[in-house]
């Protein structure tokens, strides 16, 4: 059986699993009966769509929402997956096409409204076509006490019995009574393997810091945790080697790991990491799949991860044993520029690029968060929570300031120089610094020349970084990373909206913090 990750990328266009997805996909693929509770927007559909491709036979998907079924079928078909729906919204032609595909044994996923189960003909058809599993979306509709009760959902249990195939039930409704009812009605009271949401990993301390001598920042973080196993993720292969050497020179037991090494060398590192205490692996994202070391005490990102999903997955390798673990993510304007250009220059179709930019924005939003980081992280995955008390921002709330004026100054400098320059030159204009470039271009005659003197270069760098983080500015790949204004900035430029930023005190709190271990 092929591993799920190539399909995840090739068919669904995702680089990594969302929290919880991988475990659920594995269980469903292996034919277990599964009950999974995931928040809305958490990514439930992948948890049956991906296994459907890995398993034999047709997966019957029962869902009460016709529009949603049609959406999913369209999405799957666009991705090249044979899927069809039998709903009351079908035209006769559509229904005929679905039947023909079923008879020909081509269909992998058949979406069906529960009402269909009332017909004997449907049941006969399902027996004939070789159903491999049943997936039930919105499984709480089986609950007679809930407001979404659908009497036809009660037939699903019969269907499972008649076909004798595994069933995977999904819902966002988590209360215990509903769960019990689902187990009773869909699984005949025999407890399925249950996944109860809860993406929070409260034992993992979260921290982000702007890059300010990143090598030293990583060395300090590692030294404060000397003797404990950790992973440092880097953006490039070359960097893993350089940083592993720096850590070794500093007296740590460290080695590097990346996709350019031959498989034997990689296996050696994996085995050492599993067996040795206190080894640091400096790696690209190639390191991760299949590591199940429970006592990784810390994970550092020397470069910004690719998306909020990757971030969650990578930090999630720490502290699987439930004991305190710590993370530190470094980021700077170069990371933002690099990640943006990777997306823009990639081969993905335009819609996917837009989605990738949005996922990157979500991570940048987390990096520049104004309040509890865990709250922001969980909110992205659809969970609401209280401030956690176990992140850098809960411990040291950032000092905020109304940055409307400097942000407008920066936007004005960008527009007056026609979006041809990067943060360095713009800062020289704003602070009224005399450089050859300023003189040559006549930028000392701009009305914005020197208007931002009250902020020093460092503060401007923090302002530009946060403006990029909020997606007010994007580096233009065709102009060597010159900063371009986005539409998000328009209301601020026009004076219709104010903006609050963090005063960057380049806190070293994350590094100085006494290690939990
Ligand atoms: P729900 O749990 O509400 O049914 P969906 O399955 O519709 O959620 O997924 C919600 C959104 O999350 C969709 O836009 C989907 O494309 C996106 N998504 C799902 N899985 C992933 C993933 N592994 N990486 C990135 N985005 C994902
Ligand atoms: Zn917090």
Automatic annotation (TrEMBL):
Domain Helicase ATP-binding positions: 25-192
Catalytic activity, as annotated: Couples ATP hydrolysis with the unwinding of duplex DNA by translocating in the 3'-5' direction
Top-level lineage group: Bacteria
Cofactor: Zn(2+); Mg(2+)
Single GO cellular component term: cytoplasm
Protein's GO biological process: DNA recombination; DNA repair; DNA replication; SOS response
Chain ranges of the Helicase C-terminal domain: 214-364
GO molecular function, one term: 3'-5' DNA helicase activity
Keyword Nucleotide-binding included in the entry's annotation: yes
EC number from the UniProt entry: 5.6.2.4
Keywords: ATP-binding, DNA damage, DNA recombination, DNA repair, DNA-binding, Helicase, Hydrolase, Isomerase, Metal-binding, Nucleotide-binding, Zinc
Family as reported in the entry's similarity comment: Belongs to the helicase family. RecQ subfamily.
Protein name per Swiss-Prot or TrEMBL: DNA helicase RecQ
Provenance organism: Antarcticimicrobium sediminis
Gene: recQ
Interval of the full protein contained in this chain: 1 to 517 of 682
